[in-house]
Amino acid sequence: MPSYEQTGIQWVHQVGIFFLTFVLLGTVLELVRRGYLKERYALLWLASAAGSFLVGLFPGIIEGLAALFHFQYLTILFGLYFAFTLALVLSFSIILSRLSEKNRALTQEVALLSHAVEQLEKRQQG
Amino acid sequence: MDISDSEKDNCLMTKRVLVIIPAYNEEETIASVVASLREHAPDFDILVIDDGSTDDTAKVVRELGGVELVRLPFNLGIGSAVQTGFKYALRQGYDVAVQCDADGQHPVAQLKSLVDHLEKGGADMVIGSRYVSPTAYVPSWSRRVGKSLLSRLVNIAIGGGITDTTSGFRALNRRALRVLAKHYPDDYPEAEALVILHRSGLRAVEIPVDMQPRQGGSSSIKPVHAAYYMVKVAMAICIDRVRRFTHISGEP
Q: What does the angle CA B132 – CA B138 – CA B139 come to, to the nearest 5 degrees?
């Protein structure tokens, strides 16, 4: 029976990390290949996958952090994934803000242009 | 697309003034506002920005004739609608733009005094204020509290001098239009615009006007939105103090 005081990373968790990493990597690359995901935004996800891969490769990172903060290593592991998720969500908010700003300018431009077209048509008829 | 200053000097004898009326579902009141504008300020051109109305606002305006109408394809919010008018005014070479509500609350009779005050110089924006002298306008209790807090915040940010920071009855010159055509909040823009102008080195002053009660339709600020309004505008004003405005340096 595994003991809860155990600090060394368990091999089954390490396998799990690698599995998740490759599922993530495969999904992202396939989405880019099919054109559903732009490379620009895929980079964030690839960085997350790279981070996850590093953690799988050097579990000492997790164990070191766990010892430093007096957490169990699983807590640290999920904490890291959570931090990645937060970074991704924040970047989406930034992208969204930029898009909504562009959308507003475009909408105003369309309205002004369609008014200009109306004026031109009126002048031609009259 | 701005027309050049020399071109403007050639074709202009007097100042050209545009009245910008943002309208969202104002079919009941827009006609009377336009009629009273024609009566009190016949020299001013009128532009209605239909902010994606779902009623017959656009139809009513078209039937009036002699009024320019720009229709946004969907509702963008009062700030974006007004900003569309600013862009229009700049491109058409107007010297002054006056912002006026479509609900009949703004005293159109006093619109000329806003413009006169602006033309005297010394200010880039003139605000028609409801509080400078005693007027008939009495806002609700919750609105008073919220507005007085925000007003204090704005005055701290701009070094004081404006009592009615949320009045949407304003006249602006081209310098102010240029700044606000680039940076204007999409909702509840009035208070923040003061801070943006201040940071751009422009000056706003206010003169007293009498506000009327609404003639129809419903207020754009519903009680449920009051909390969002307070927090959003307060945050924006604080950030405006340190915000990086890319266009401001090097502008005339």
A: 105
Confirm or reject contact between B82 and chain A (CB < 8 A). Answer: no
**Confidence category of residue B172, pLDDT binned at 50, 70, 90:** very high
**What DSSP designation does B53 have?**
-
Q: At what angle do helices A11-34 and A73-125 cross, to 10 degrees?
A: 10
Distance of alpha carbon A71 from alpha carbon A13, whole angstroms: 16
Any A CB within 8 A of B76 CB = yes
B43, burial (CB in 10 Å: exposed 0-12, middle 13-18, buried 19+): exposed
Q: What is the mean pLDDT of residues A90-110?
A: 94
B78, B51 contact by CB (below 8 A): yes
> What are the beta bridge partners of residue B170?
B99, B127
Q: Is A115 on the interface with B (CB under 8 A)?
A: yes
- The interface predicted TM-score (ipTM) is 0.82
Task: Please judge whether A112 and B74 are an interchain contact, meaning their C-beta atoms are less than 8 angstroms apart.
Answer: no
Long-range contacts of B4-12 (CB under 8 A, 24+ apart): B7/B93, B8/B93, B8/B95, B12/B93, B12/B95
Query: Does A110 reach chain B within 8 Å, measured CB to CB?
Result: yes
Is B69 within 8 Å of A115 when comparing Cβ atoms?
Answer: yes
Q: Compute the C-alpha angle A38/A106/A118, nearest 5°.
A: 140
Cα(B46)–Cα(B43) distance, rounded to whole angstroms? 10
pLDDT at B108 over 70: yes
Cβ–Cβ of A104/B70 closer than 8 Å? no
Residue B102 contacts residue B26 (beta carbons within 8 Å): yes
